[in-house]
Amino acid sequence: MMQTIPPKNQHDYKEKRRFGPVAGISLVAILFALGLIPKLRSHAALVAESHQQATAAPPVEVVTTHMASDDNLSLSGDVQAISATSVQARASGYVAKLYVDIGSHVKAGQVLADIESPDADQQAAQANADTAKSRATVGQSVANVAKSEAGVAQSQSELVRQKAAIKQAQAAVAGAKAKVAQAQAEASGAKAKLSQSKHAVETQNASLAQAVSQYDLAQVTAKRYGALLKDGFVAQQDYDQAAATLKTTAANVQAAQANIHAAQSDVTASEQGVAAANSVVDAARSDEDAAQANVAAAVANYQSLLTNVSASRATVQASQADVAASQAAVSSSEANARRYAVLSSFKRVVAPFDGVITARNVDIGSLVTPGTNITGSSTTPTSGLFGIARTDTLRIFVNLPQTYYQSIKPGSKAKVFIQELPNTPFEGTVQQSSGALNSGSRTLLTEVRLPNPGGVLLPGMYAQVQLPTGSGNATLRAPADVLKVDAQGVRVAVVDSQMRVHFRNVTLGRDFGAEVEIVSGIGPADRLIANPSDDLKDGGKVNVVAGGPAQ
């Protein structure tokens, strides 16, 4: 049901409707003004602050330099063990036992671990078997040499006997020749006797004078045969025959007629003697031919024996060569056996020197193989079976500046400081130097030895080494954070009394870590800006907020 508005209320309602929008607009304007005015004020404040910051001097921290005595030179270095290495496996196999762990102190030769290596054992057994086989071969070869030498001796003995047989056959030839000569002489005598007998028959009818002449001839003939008999050219029978002829001719002188019949008998007898003598000559020649054949056979046999001796000697030489080859095989087998024996000994891993175990990289059952060489001297190697270091004596390598290379000599004393042990300086000695300066840094690598009987110091520590130089000169030093290194070189930012910045190039000397030595470019009274920023301009003003001497 619609409600009726009274007249008075209708008037009030119209007034409200007329002034409602005006009031809303006014309210929005007021609210806008209230929000805009603070923003405008804030912006103006920010602009003013930015202008002030742009024109204000930047704040900087200022430090000063100081002069330091050069009596002692302080250099940094790392503490190292005098000896440190990685213990490698020399045999392949599995780790069977471990006798040490990290931190264990060991002696040289002490067993660190056992490796089970069946392959090495089998190889060693095979090498020993090969050695035994080679030795047996040597024995057989030596026996063959002895047998061959016996054959040579036998052949030489037979050769000597054959030489004797040749001489005997040659003697038989000479005897046969003598018999031939004797038979021929007998035949000649028989023929002469036959001729004489015939001549006697023919001359028996001659005169006695001829008989006397025959007597003389017979006498001469007898003398001749006597001489021949002494020389052995005629037989006794021939001589006797000549003597008989002499007697016969003598008798013939007395009884020529009687001798005619005797002469005829002699002719017959002489003919028979000639026939018999010819038979003897033929037999003697046959004996000579047989003896010559025996000599030829003996010589041929001798040549055959010479060939046998040469062959036997060749066999001896071949057998001796076999012995030499077998002995070489024995030497090779023995060397191989010794090699595998050495490899078997590597199953026991031992410490190379006195020291402490710094690393253990294997467990029982780990498979290991012969390792490779490890470069460097890390005391905690990650490869190999163990790491070991000798720490009763330590060493520190420092880089000695060229300025002091003549002041610090081997034997010079040194003090070593460890940050964790500030009240305990350690005494060391300069041991040696490299003998040549590094051309880049102009420093000499120098070794300092440090006794460590109690094991207080550990390899790998950072140390400061103080070396007495004895120069007594003072040098200018500044904190290292004052340096600015850019394309214009090494510079520092100096603040003058007007609070203005001036960049100066400087020449550096030694680096002491937190401090550096300034050789030229600034003086002791100059104030330097620590950690100069890239916003600093040469000649610009700065606001010093802190400062003090270099520490």
Short description:
With 551 residues, this protein is α+β, with helices and mostly antiparallel strands. It contains 5 helices and 22 strands.
Low-confidence stretches: 1-5, 372-377
Question: In DSSP terms, counting alpha (H) and pi (I) runs of 4 or more, how many helices?
Answer: 5
User: Order of SSEs, N→C?
Assistant: HEEEEEEHHHHEEEEEEEEEEEEEEEE
The helicity comes to: 40-55%
State the assembly state of the protein chains. single chain
Q: Using only CA atoms, what is the Rg?
A: 69 Å
Indicate the overall shape. Answer: rod-shaped
C-alpha end-to-end distance: 98 Å
Strand content: 25-35%
Largest sheet: 6 strands, mixed
Count of strand segments = 22
Explain the overall architecture.
Belongs to the membrane fusion protein (MFP) (TC 8.A.1) family. GO terms for molecular function: efflux transmembrane transporter activity. One of its GO terms (cellular component) is efflux pump complex. It holds the Pfam family Beta-barrel_RND_2. The structure is a single chain. It is rod-shaped and about 220 Å long. It folds into 4 domains: 34 residues; 85 residues, conserved putative lor/sdh protein from methanococcus maripaludis s2 fold, CATH 2.40.420.20; 155 residues, Elongation Factor Tu (Ef-tu), domain 3 (Beta Barrel); 201 residues. Strands 1, 16, 17, 18, 21 and 22 form a 6-stranded mixed beta sheet that branches. It has 5 helices and 22 strands. The two termini are 98 Å apart. The N terminus is likely disordered. It is an alpha+beta fold and 551 residues long.
